[in-house]
Design goal:
Layout lengths: L1 H11 L1 H26 L1 H19 L5 H13 L1 H12 L5 H15 L6 H10 L1 H14 L7 E6 L2 H14 L3 E6 L6 H15 L3 E7 L11 H7 L3 E5 L18 E4 L3 E5 L16 E3 L2 E6 L2 H15 L26 E7 L7 H12 L3 E5 L7 H12 L3 E7 L5 H9 L1 H6 L3 E5 L2 E3 L3 E4 L3 E5 L5 H6 L2 E7 L2 H14 L2 E4 L1 H4 L3 H12 L5
Parallel strand pairs: 2-3, 3-4, 7-13, 10-11, 11-12
Antiparallel strand pairs: 1-8, 2-5, 5-6, 6-8, 9-16, 10-14, 12-17, 14-15, 15-16
Helix pairs in contact: 2-3, 3-4, 3-5, 4-5, 6-12, 8-13, 9-10, 13-14, 15-20
């Protein structure tokens, strides 16, 4: 009976209805265009000319070469279908109006950031490579480098969840929550109970979630039910079941901020598999970080950027209400620096990828990665292999049990080239790895929401923490070393496949930037 209900929910759920509507609209448009072009020679020539012009536009765009190659192949293979697909999935931006609004808000928020000169001067003496990385992040988004920030690393969702609840219970002024996935269950319902109680006590509670990320999990009217409870809610880039051209960008960030006292981020969403109360793909290996202290201020402003860009005018917040001086001070100084940062797809700066590449290029002894997907461009592949060839111990942990089998095939298609180049690949036997982080040379790490795949690096709104000389850096390293004991080391022999399998992977690689 439960199995039948699950099937019925899948067939009659919002995603299935939306998907069917889109397929029908797409099929109808293709049919109309095909019949029109078949009957009228000039229409056929016009479509082919449009395809050539579009390819020239794509080639001249400031974007990833692999992405250009994929779209060029699809459009020239079938101009009519290619034009339709590119119009729907190929755009890497929201509307121009949204782009301008976000650009304005980023500049507005940047005016409230202040970089303490002493921190930069100290970094220049200690490590110029770290100073350069920090300067890059600071120049793009304005995010300052912080001392006086404590960090706590969590090796799993079930380890982080109790601390999240404790901090939520302490809230007196505001709770800001921005997540890619929310699903009703033990994890979210427990949090929601606290949010409802806090609203009754006058706490300002604001929730922002991604519509496509929750399309399997939440009904379309869920935001209204939260608003009835007194919780202010924004649904990012709501997906409407019409032939849309702006749903390709998603809010993949995970940000929870409680008052000015604590903030959480990492790979962990609000659904039961993230705390292993439900197992879909074996054990769910994830990670997260809590920060307390001055760096929380950047997390507040990070949330406000997105909230003010998409919330109704009457619910927008004044940045001046949130002061750096009001962020909780620590009883004692914490070693090291913390630099929260974000990335968005509405400019030509790929911050998430650049942070990873800079880390790879600066590594002297080792660099280790957790990533759920390994779908990367030539720049990242080259950086990884060059690091391995100069003697750096490069290790990447990927899932042993995938959540998406086709994506997993594409991930595995990168193994032969990387392994042959000296990069060590490991697959996690117990289940699915959802953690996203890198650690380098016992001194630097970055952890957050950014996968080593095209969507995270080029299409989604993301966030991360850059850490230097913090005890959390070594905690991340130890977590990776412990996890390696439960992994299979991928050898060159294991990468050898039959011709059919290699052909399938080759075809999928062509479409890799679109997956």
């Amino acid at each position: 009976m439960a199995h039948m209900k699950k099937i019925a929910h899948l067939l009659l759920g919002r995603f299935s209805i939306v998907a069917l509507t889109i397929v029908l609209q797409f099929g109808w448009l293709v049919l109309v265009m095909y019949r029109f072009s078949y009957q009228f020679t000039y229409a056929n020539l016009a479509i082919r000319l449009m395809a050539v012009i579009l390819v020239l536009e794509i080639v001249n765009k400031w974007t990833n070469p692999a992405n250009k190659l994929s779209w060029t192949f699809i459009i020239l293979l079938s101009p009519m279908v290619g034009l339709m697909l590119y119009t729907t999935f190929g755009r890497s931006e929201l509307t121009k109006k949204t782009e301008r609004r976000l650009d304005t808000i980023v500049k507005e928020v940047g005016a409230y950031f202040y970089q303490t000169p002493e921190i930069k001067e100290d970094l220049e003496r200690k490590d110029k490579a770290v100073l350069g990385q920090s300067k890059y992040i600071n120049d793009w988004g304005g995010y300052p480098i912080y001392r006086n920030t404590q960090t706590k690393y969590y090796r799993s969702g079930e380890e982080m969840f109790p601390d999240m609840l404790k901090e939520l219970e302490k809230a007196e002024h505001f709770i800001f929550l921005e997540y890619f996935i929310i699903e009703e269950g033990i994890m979210w319902n427990t949090i929601l109970d606290i949010l409802e109680e806090k609203v009754k006590l006058g706490v300002d509670v604001r929730v922002m979630y991604d519509d496509v990320g929750c399309i399997f999990n939440l009904p379309s009217h869920y935001a209204d039910s939260l608003r009835k409870k007194g919780i202010k809610c924004v649904v990012f880039n709501r997906y409407i079941p019409v032939f849309s051209t702006v749903f390709n960008n998603r809010d993949h960030r995970k940000i929870l901020v409680i008052d000015g006292n604590a903030a959480f981020t990492g790979g962990i969403n609000f659904a039961d598999e993230y705390i292993n109360e439900k197992q879909r793909f074996g054990y769910w290996k994830d990670n997260g970080v809590r920060i307390t202290g001055k760096a929380v201020y950047s997390m507040i402003q990070m949330f406000l950027q997105m909230w003010n860009a998409f919330a109704p005018e009457k619910e927008k917040l004044d940045y001046e209400k949130f002061s750096l001086e009001e962020v909780a001070l620590l009883p004692e100084k914490e070693r090291g620096i913390v630099l929260p940062y974000s990335d968005h797809p509405l400019d030509s700066e790929f911050v998430g990828e650049s942070v990873y590449i800079n880390l790879i290029n600066s590594a002297q002894k080792y660099i280790y990665f957790f990533t759920p997907y390994l779908i990367i461009d030539n720049e990242v592949v080259t950086a990884l292999i060059l690091a391995a060839k100069r003697g750096v111990d490069v290790r990447i942990i990927t899932p042993g049990i995938p959540d998406k089998k086709m994506i997993f095939l594409v991930t595995q298609s990168y193994y032969p080239q990387l392994v042959e180049g000296g990069v060590k690949i490991f697959q996690y036997r117990p289940g699915f790895v959802h953690a996203k982080c890198a650690v380098c040379d016992d001194k630097i790490a970055t952890v957050g929401t950014i996968n080593l795949d095209y969507r995270s690096l080029y299409l989604h709104f993301e966030n991360g923490l850059f850490l230097y000389d913090c005890h959390t850096v070594m905690a991340i390293k130890q977590d990776i070393l412990d996890t390696l004991e439960d992994c299979n080391h991928i050898t060159e022999e294991m990468c050898k496949k039959n011709m059919f399998f290699l052909l399938l992977q080759g075809i999928l690689r062509i479409f890799a930037p679109l997956l």
